[in-house]
Amino acid sequence: MTATTDRGLPGAPCWVSLLTGDLPAAQEFYGAVMGWSFRPGTLGEDFSVALMDGKPVAGIGNVARSMGVAVSWTSYFAVEDADTVAARIRERGATVAVGPLSVGHGRAALAADPAGAVFGFWEGETLREWSIGHRGAPAWLELRTRDAFASAIFYGEVFEWATGRPDRCEVRYEDDAVMVRGQGHTVACLRGGGIEAAPDPQIRPRWHVYFCVDDVEKAVEAALAAGGTVAAAPHDSWVGREASLRDCEGGLFTVTGARG
């Protein structure tokens, strides 16, 4: 991490990272589509940090093959004690797949919730200037899952959401979705079927990362030209214009014209 760090709000998203199998190809793709530049990461030659206007946006790690996982964008949540969080995850029938491991000046782990959605958590300092919807960071994080209410209970218990503590995230139920708020703004959304509806078996649970672009259609054209594919064509959603894309190795992400 850089000198501008703090411990982060426990339970709130603190970073996103692409697990890729080809770092140079990933940098070329996202440079073309998102206009990012890159600098070496602090974890070795297999890692880099994506920058927008000189500000950190996301991490890229050339570790998908060595870890035996799919190429994917992963959302990380800040925690005070990685071992405690790992125990809570296991106690609730979910999986801690990797870690917690010492990484740089902190500890990281990868897990999957009971529905199979992969997420990470991080114990250590976080970038102070990185916050959902601000300064080039992702505009939005959304868990698409079969049962949003059940997922809210799981994550709420694991990350201590909705405990009434001022140093924790709060939860609101709006328009059949679970909105997670921290320090005065929305940091994540959990969306599935209706809150009281039966789970939707057609949904493949996953955390989706939304990146803001000036022009969704141009981003789609750039992705296709760079060897990516379109998972969902440009359309108007509840947050604005958006499209879902896969990079040249299949990593799924969404571009949106909405500013957080």
CATH class: Alpha Beta
Number of domains: 1
Q: Approximately how much beta-strand content do the residues carry?
A: 35-45%
What does the overall shape look like? globular
CATH topology: 2,3-Dihydroxybiphenyl 1,2-Dioxygenase, domain 1
Structural class, judged by helices and strands?
alpha+beta
Strand order of the largest sheet: 3-4-5-2-6-9-8-7
Organism: Streptomyces stramineus
InterPro entries: Anthracycline_SecMetBiosynth (IPR052164), Glyas_Bleomycin-R_OHBP_Dase (IPR029068), Glyas_Fos-R_dOase_dom (IPR004360), Glyoxalase_6 (IPR041581), VOC_core (IPR037523)
Protein name: VOC family protein
Can you walk me through this structure?
The chain is of the alpha+beta class and 260 residues long. The chain has one domain (5-256): 2,3-Dihydroxybiphenyl 1,2-Dioxygenase, domain 1. 18% of the residues lie in helices and 41% in strands. It has 5 helices and 18 strands. It has helices spanning 23-34, 64-67, 82-91, 148-159, 216-225; strands at residues 5-6, 13-19, 37-40, 47-52, 55-61, 72-79, 95-103, 106-112, 118-123, 126-127, 140-144, 170-174, 177-182, 185-191, 206-212, 229-236, 241-246, 252-256. The strands form 3 sheets. An 8-stranded mixed β-sheet has the order 3-4-5-2-6-9-8-7, with helices on one face. An 8-stranded mixed β-sheet has the order 12-13-14-11-15-18-17-16. Helix 1 runs antiparallel to helix 5 and helix 3 (82-91) runs antiparallel to helix 4. It is globular. The two termini are 24 Å apart. The model has no long low-confidence stretch (mean pLDDT 87). Residues 12-124, 137-258 form the VOC domain. Pfam families: Glyoxalase (PF00903), Glyoxalase_6 (PF18029). It comes from Streptomyces stramineus. This is VOC family protein.
